[in-house]
Amino acid sequence: MSEILFYNIGRYYTADTKAGYGRIKSAENVHIRVRDGHIEEIGTGGINAGQSAQTVDCHGLTLLPGFVDAHTHPVFYKTREEEFVMRVQGKSYEQIAAAGGGIRNSVRRFREADKETIKERTRKRIAVFPEYGTTTIEAKSGYGLSKEDEIKSLEIIAELNREQPLEMIPTFLGAHEVPDEYRDRRGDYIDLVCNEMIPEVGERKLARFCDVFCEKDVFSVEESRRILECGRAHGLTPKLHADELYPLGGAELSAEVRAISADHLLEISDKGIQRMADEGVMAVLLPGTTFFLGKERYAPARKMLDKGLEVVIATDYNPGSSATQNLQLMTTLGAIKMRMMPEELLWAITFSAARAIGMEDHIGHLEVGKQADFVLMDIPNLHYLPYHYGINHTVMTVKKGNIIYQKGD
Ligand code: NIG
Ligand code: FE
After folding, report:
1. Which one of 55, 241, 244, 281 is at 20 to 30 Å from 297 when CA atoms are compared?
2. pTM here?
3. What separation in Å is there between the alpha carbon of 215 and the centre of ligand 2?
């Protein structure tokens, strides 16, 4: 039995899950008692710290639930700053991909490397998330694109889950691209995904979700439907990269297959919004990707919220289209580019984000019985989080009651 008392918390903010999206619960002069990694008590007023075995003084700072990043691609070998510079010089992401760069570039490099090297690089990269207040991420495969290399990616996620504190919820993304060797027989690649990869991933429980890059020149709506239905039959809940670069109808497909979320959605149609609302599919928006690709049009978050969609904000951390682990910065983009309010943004990176990865029973808000995942920030109030932008407000990050990051050490 371990008990820790976090006291002298100036103020906390968390989703008011009974009141609904964008509504916040808050209190001043708070303490939180943690037992065996879970929140045992949230109290206000004075506390006799002497009664507890272990105490942590929070110095009057602000406490938020640990951030949940519901869309990332952290398992890759090399970064792609040379493509970034090509984009600065005027080439588009799509042009680079069509010339064999982009995801296929990462796939070639991934296959050159041994598992240990990729694993150690991934370990180093994911250690950055807690520095920015993130305590859980959804993590996709998708840079292997052979049975062996996709399984390798998911094994790396499983091993790192046991070896370090950031919690990762795995997603199988074997349908991220058609790899080089299948360019003129794409049907065979889809057969490989459905007949070989998905059954093994499902059998070994290496992933919870099955994702597809449903996009013009990548996987069509029909191909995506087949892959997602196959995933579903093997216990993997559907998720989609949808309507990012072209309005293909991925949002409508997400409703049809009753995906847990559809992600990106810059080019979503009104009908797509309506269909997602009808079926309760969540919208995971990735404003960092829009920014980093230099696009003008951000996903229509306000319209989605007006239609009753639950909106999540994530980083899309990956080596090509969004090279950042910083969810705090995403809240600024969400506010400025998508007109989301700070209260909505807190939901979008905590409770709703947890819902988009099926984890809301354990994480995403501060409540007795939930996992003790939280972040102490040097911000005077919630509105200050997206306002003072581009810097890191995190002072301390706590995962399952353990301090996993502290500023200055
Ligand atoms: O979410 N859209 C597809 N996949 C990633 C990009 C991956 C890459 O460029 O390496 C994304 O943006
Ligand atoms: Fe992505």
Report:
1. 281
2. 0.98
3. 12
